[in-house]
Specification:
- The chain has about 725 residues and is α/β, with parallel strands linked by helices.
- It is built from 26 helices and 21 strands.
- Helices cover about 40% and strands about 15% of the residues.
- The strands form four sheets. Strands 11-12-10-13-14-9-15 form a seven-stranded parallel β-sheet, with helices on both faces. It has a six-stranded parallel β-sheet with strand order 16-21-20-17-19-18, sandwiched between helices.
- Strand 5 and strand 6 form a beta hairpin.
- It is globular, with a radius of gyration of 32 Å.
- The two termini are about 30 Å apart.
- Bound molecules: adenosine-5'-diphosphate and magnesium ion (MG).
- The site of adenosine-5'-diphosphate has 17 residues, from helix 12.
Length: about 725
Amino acid sequence: MPPKPNYARSRELLATSLAGIRGVGPKLEKTLAKAGLETVEDVLYTLPLRYEDRRQVRRIAQLRDGQREVFVGEVLAAAETTTPRARKRLFEVIVGDGTGQVSLKWFHYHKAWLSKRFAVGTRAVFTGEVKRFGAVREVHHPDAELLGSRTLEEIMAADPLSFGRVLPVYPLTEGLSQKVARKIFKQVVEAYAPLTVSPVPPEILQKNNLLPLDIALRQCHWPEVGENESFDEERGPQQARSSLVFDEFFFLELGLALKRRGIVLERGIAFNVNHVYTKPLAAMLPFRLTEAQRRVLGEIKHDMMSIHPMHRLVQGDVGCGKTIVALMAALVAIENDTQVALIAPTEILAEQHYIQFHQWLDKLGLKAVLLSGSLPAREKQAVYEEIREGRAHLVVGTHAVLQEGVDFKRLGLGIIDEQHRFGVVQRGILRHKGNNPDILVMTATPIPRTLSLTLYGDLSVSIIDQMPPGRSPVKTRVVSETKREDAYAFIRKQIEEGRQAYIVYPLVEESEKSDLLAATQAAEQLAEEVFHGFRTGLLHGRMKPAEKEGVMAAFKAGEIHALVSTTVIEVGVDVPNATVMMVEHAERFGLAQLHQLRGRVGRGSAQSYCLLVRSKNCSEDGARRLRVMSETTDGFRIAEADLEIRGPGEFLGTRQAGLPDFRVANLLRDGRILEQSRREAFALAADPEFDSHPKYAGTRQALLDRWGSRLELASIG
Ligand code: ADP
Ligand code: MG
């Protein structure tokens, strides 16, 4: 066995092009490249989808239905025939072994070749999935290895890659067969797996009963399984797989741990809670804060008073009252002569926040400004100046706040609303707009625990787990297109009782124009026919900010009864008297979006309703989403269902969040390993030896490698 290279050399070796591998000619190289396989490392990390247990050759009588099996048989009959109903042609071979018979079928074939190959009396080893149709057992398109004059033992000895063991089944691409893939992959794994080095410290591997990287990789590709050992063909070798998953998670968590450590050690602003503005505000509020709001506010104040910068996430379902908590925190910062930036994902939400905050701030003699992307240049400059000179106490806006040219006199607190739309990167930019300001992020997306560990691993978390009193859950119904009239009648009745309604149209990007047209036309039609005699309004993203503001203000004041809108109202819009929401083409929306949308109603004490209109050509996933919505209003359960339907990659938008991709790990299944790796990583990050001891050099290098510059880990090396 060659000596182990060091970590850096190992990286170089793994970058070896597949063109240099024996048996990989230019054609195969192209095929592999098409599947994204270019280097040795790509192959090492392309793990089998599942495995095929070919340790045992079965008697035909013992074949298990639904399993891929290996068996030996002699051809009893072979002929081309047709399927009874569809009259499709197929080639059928009957084989037997004295214990029973199986029918082998080919639907795509070369007749002359098959007839010659499977002449009566021919003996062969067959492999394939056994299906049962009534009394008949069939195998479609089996693999076959002719025995000729050889015995089974001789065949198996001659082709050890295909028989007598557990085989990997790789994800394949056109032009690449399992047989070729196995051969090439086996070569690569044998030559290169031993050259990988495991940068997870050996004592951590040992303690957690994990295998070193090289052994884990080999085991995953070519599991060594004893003759009588049980083996799960779907899940594969567990210890080896867990080891690879741990390896991936460990570096993710180590990065987050160091980031957190860095923040904790830095010096920020130690705020004074002097109640100059918070007390008067509390007196002005028309309600008392809930228990949960007070607890979370306490946690925030505690952080703000500390000399180290706050990095806290406030999570709470739609409507739980995060805004007021943020406002209180903002006032603490302003009481200490610092400025506050509040960033929201959409213009409309930024405007909403602005309207709300500036109402309260006005009453306290403080100044709030709105920085929107659509502001004319001259006005923008004026706002910039107010920010620079410190006259603006609170700056509300979208991404525009993060842009160059926005300089604060003294930024004390940055608040990010609906964090899931932003990532680690934006948080970093905001931090650099001041001198280590406190950061507060708010999200209504309840994130399953495993995911929040990855996504927000470097933040402390507060949860508002209580709704303001007097709310009852929104009643949700799925309405088929043909029953739309009933829905309209219901809405008219609500309006007659003094309530207001939202009617939401989807706006999908590719067809944005036509959808916009649909919404606009629908608004006209609704105004003239359906809601004749009531006042309707239209709101969409292409309107000028002033127009939008006007419509929102009118809706808020109750001057508009039914607001037809696109999803611009998705987040943050707050009109407690609106009690019905009707969503057109509801199946086109994602679950998170539907939950956010529905959160616009049920904000007052009156019973609220959500009517989800389902189109005729609704997809299966779409129907599943609507079912989830009608079954629960619990944001947490909705998020879990969403994660299940979409998978973690899309759910998180990992790229956007600035997190590395996983090659082996699966956030849904591997939660336990994630927590295990997190414990170990945080313990290691707290070890003073980690930063400089030579024994951790490989681990440190691997960390930088995997995170790149994404986490500002410059302090270690
Ligand atoms: P979200 O958490 O979704 O951002 P908001 O902060 O917009 O929720 O609050 C939802 C609604 O509840 C608002 O109308 C707000 O004024 C109201 N609200 C917030 N806190 C309380 C409370 N403690 N008691 C009564 N109403 C409250
Ligand atoms: Mg909100």
